[in-house]
Amino acid sequence: MENTIIPEGLLVYLRPVIEYWYYSLIIGIFLVFAAKFVEKISIALLGFLLGINVLFPVLLNQFPQLNELLTDPAYYQISMLVFGVIVAAVLFALYKSFVFIAGFGVVGIIGYYLADFTIQFFDIQLNFNPLYITALIGVILGLIGGIISTKKSSEVISIMSIVVGSATLSAVVVGLITRNNIEEKITEPLYSSIFIGVFLALVILGSVWNFKRSKKSEVA
């Protein structure tokens, strides 16, 4: 079996990004370089990408009969865009809630796994199921993370936007290099490495660009 950095299952979500690269390119550039300055627009664009690249493919996978109604490429694209706009509108309207849920989920999961790792590493013996304590720690830290994320929503949205935008642009770059062979090439170590390399470079560049400019504007 050939070694790969990017799992093949990820192709389900990368394919729309690459196939409709003209949308992805514009949104990706915006998310990487302007996220810090237009928070609510960034949330809407994140929702749009989430809708067309994640939720729409999942919806089609769960309800295969929908594929029969969307055999025409034009209908498929229109349906995908409409669905993306709906998700974007929902996140735009509920962006504070979205930030809290994102902060709760990320910090809670990290807290859960750190607690579980600590119990196993130090071989801590408990008289009850360790899941209770690890879940409790995860929930408590998740709540703290959610509250902090809500108060620091601008920074949280900026970081999420930079990460998602960088991943989107990386997929576009690899897609343009591989042309029509994305399914075969993306799992090869060379192209997976290009994806990871471009992604990390854009994350660093986007972080420096957004947060350095933000500090300059605050000083001014």
UniProtKB/TrEMBL annotation:
Keywords for the protein's UniProt record, in alphabetical order: Membrane, Transmembrane, Transmembrane helix
Residues annotated as transmembrane: 20-38, 45-63, 75-94, 99-119, 131-149, 156-178, 190-211
Protein name: DUF4203 domain-containing protein
